[in-house]
Amino acid sequence: MSLLHVFGFGLKVGHLLWMLCCWIVSVISMNWFINGGIVESKTGLLGDGGKMWLRFWGKISGNSCKMHHHYYQYIGSKRVRKTWWRKLLVSWVIGWIMVSLWILWYMSSQATEKRKETLASMCDERARMLQDQFNVSMNHVQAMSILISTFHHGKNPSAIDQRTFARYTERTAFERPLTSGVAYAVRVLHSEREQFEKQQGWTIKRMDTLEQNPVHKDDYTPELLEPSPIQEEYAPVIFAQDTISHVVSLDMLSGKEDSENVLRARESGTGVLTAPFRLLKTNRLGVILTFAIYKKDLPSNATPNERIQATDGMYGSNVSDDGLQHVSSLNFGDPHRKHEMHCRFKQKPPWPWLAITTSFGVLVIALLIGHIFHATVNRIAKVEDDYHEMMELKKRAEAADIAKSQFLATVSHEIRTPMNGVLGMLHMLMDTDLDVTQQDYVKTAQASGKALVSLINEVLDQAKIESGKLELEDVQFNLRAILDDVLSLFSDKSQGKGVELAVYISDSVPEMLIGDPGRFRQIIINLMGNSIKFTHQGHIFVTVHLVEEVIESIDVETESSSRNTLSGLPVADRRRSWAGFRTFSQEGSSRTLLSTSSDLINLIISVEDTGEGIPLEAQSRIFTPFMQVGPSTSRKYGGTGIGLSISKCLVGLMNGEIGFVSIPKIGTTFTFTAVFANGCSDSNEYNSYKISNQSNAITSEFRGMTALVVDPRSVRAKVSRYHIQRLGIHVEVVSDLNQALCSTSNGNAVVNMVLIEQEVWDRDSSVSAQFVNNIKKIDGGVSLKLFLLANSISSSRTNDASSGVYTPSVIMKPLRASMLAASLQRAMGVGNKGNPRNGELGNLLLGRKILIVDDNGVNLKVAAGALKKYGADVVCAESGEKAIKLLTPPHQFDACFMDIQMPEMDGFEATKRIRDKECSFKSTIQNGDASVGAYENLPNWHVPILAMTADVIQATHEECLKCGMDGYVSKPFEAEQLYREVSRFFQSTSTVIL
């Protein structure tokens, strides 16, 4: 019972604790959301129901988050003083202390009530058990009354004596569970007393003295008791159970309680109980049960007098007391007495630990919630302060960034402006009559100036990368032309070192791409510049393929021989540089690249060299800005150490990856990927553009011709074939001169030219002479031309000096389409033998009137000299106001180069005003205020204005286009740069000029 009670009460308390826990978890989760904590759940593991529940919980949390945010913002802001918040916090703590005390009192009272209920239930149950035991005892007493009546009064002499009675009652004591002893008292009249005492051998003793002065067992002596006083009748005890044998000879009618019991029992014929009193010799509370025994059978409706006359004796028992305090009513069949049972717990009630722990837990939770609220308010206040501080720092950072950009623009302009004058004047000086020493000095100064400009460009690029303002353009460009230009930049250095320089582009790569050609060119220049710097023998080889081609060939490509390279020297395998590429990993994006649309071109470019290689300890920091391979104080080679860092950033902006593999004393191979758009939307457009581009830019006089390449190295022969085929020439490759002789002597094939590698020609002079003689004997009707492919100037000069019979034409490497075409034209006597590019530009600029606006006299002189060199009529202006006057329509200028940063009025403002004047003039003509015939082509008046500034910030370029400028030329500029930019506007009318 107790366990069930405690369990039921625990459910109520647990429900209360669960509500409090839900509350504190809700508060904690709100605080978590306020501080920006978001739990990312893997909804993939949940079903649709779980996802709906998450969305529903997100809405509830979001609304609660907003409510708590506004509340916290109000509490945590400065609108509420700290004192009020402290008072609120103290009130919270005191209130919850009172609540916890109430919970303690309530739960303790509930426990007390439950204990009382338990005691009452147990006491009532015990009373029912006592009632049942009493009924059992009464049944046995009645049975014993019949036994005594039969064997004591029904027989003469009696068949029962004290010993028999004691033995019988002792053996049958278990049938009377509530009695401590049984005694039999007989009715004796006064007239029969003397005879009765003689018969029993003892005197009838009185009992009232013992009731007034009860004695213990050790103090009781029956012989010392007083005889019973004289009265009409006596009820002495003649038989008794051994446990109460001391009551033998006591007159039950001499006791107050016993006398009343005897008389009522005799009259009623039922058992009668006395009131509790201290029993003789035991000093314990007990009661006497009296039951009458009659001489003869009585009818059920016998009168009291009949019962009194028929009484033979009294039968009684002694009932023990349990000493309990709770009161339960008992019914023993006596209408004159009400019996009760008093019950109590022997142990003291235990401490109400559940109430104590619950109230203490509630108080702790309340204090924790108060602490959370207090910490949250302080946190929000701190976050708000940090936010204001962050916004202030952000404003400062933005101001500093603007100042930094302005500083870079100013520094760039201030450095580039004099550098433009220095390089321009040196270039003009090169066109004058100088002796060999003077030309060497000028070239050295010019190279130093270009190196300084390159350094400035790298530092500015690094600054833009750090500020996150480096952006790429999306323009159409010719990849092969760019790589040809890069080869031209490094051709002198490679020839001087005797290092073979080559480029190979797969035929699968489109001719035209869309991207940023300048930044792609910068990456290639950085990588090739490093290779040229650290390579003293062997080769530098640049290859361009589609990523799809490389991926398809990974499984079938075998490890090449260490000698199967461009120069025959071993190299670092480029495939090892792909190890960290996502493109080539199983979990990477290779499958994605293969499934992209055809408009995206994924290129992989490798720059392979046979240089010194990168030391193992320096390879981990190769892409770190301003880090050198060697010590800064003793390094052998110069440089800033930021070229590779910039290249890695540019590759990332092109959605590519870069890596390398380097083996000391063997060489280094850098590989990177880049994503461009296809510049030819369909194959027809691509083919038509390719044909027109080749026929115009490279010449088409060689179409239909056949060339024979003699080269034992397959890689080098592949490169030669690639460049010769760009001219429209069919190419065949053989490994030695004997095979070449067989091919040329075959009547079925007509060979127009034979290109022989220098090392093949120099290997055996006798074989070479024999080959020349055999060629002379061949009469194919076609003049066969011999060419040597030389790698260095020294080797070609040696060949010229040693060859006495026949001297073939020498073509210097690296091979490029324009250079190769010019060499073949000169040797074979076809096409334009001059410089087609310069001649074309000279024709385009001939007679053109160009205005140059710059506040720096040196820059004016440099630009004017460069343009006059190609036949242009140049006019100079020193300010924006003067430029506006000269370019106010109508005028005769065909183009204008305008400096941006000028005093009083900059180039932006001057350009805007010039465009406004042009619009006003057009409106005048359209309204009829001016005659159209007086001005040729004036209704579409728009003079090309090209920005000319030392500021290379991207924002400056955008501002130039916004204010109406048509192009952009950065300082220091070179003559060809001015030619290229201005010629774009004259190409449409070049036929008229020519």
From TrEMBL:
UniProt entry keywords in alphabetical sequence: Endoplasmic reticulum, Kinase, Membrane, Phosphoprotein, Receptor, Transferase, Transmembrane, Transmembrane helix
Among the entry's GO cellular component annotations, what is one? endoplasmic reticulum membrane
> What is this protein called in UniProt?
histidine kinase
Where does the UniProt annotation locate this protein?
Endoplasmic reticulum membrane
Molecular function per GO: cytokinin receptor activity; phosphorelay sensor kinase activity; protein histidine kinase binding
State the membrane topology.
Answer: Multi-pass membrane protein
What this protein catalyses is: ATP + protein L-histidine = ADP + protein N-phospho-L-histidine
Domain Histidine kinase: residue ranges: 410-678
Offer one Pfam family short name for this entry: Response_reg
- Response regulatory domain: which residues? 849-986
Q: What is its EC number?
A: 2.7.13.3
- Give the CHASE domain ranges: 156-314
Which residues get modified to 4-aspartylphosphate?
Answer: 899
Its organism's taxonomic lineage begins at:
Eukaryota, Viridiplantae, Streptophyta, Embryophyta, Tracheophyta
List, alphabetically, the Gene3D superfamilies matched.
1.10.287.130, 3.40.50.2300, 6.10.250.1190, CHASE domain, Histidine kinase-like ATPase, C-terminal domain
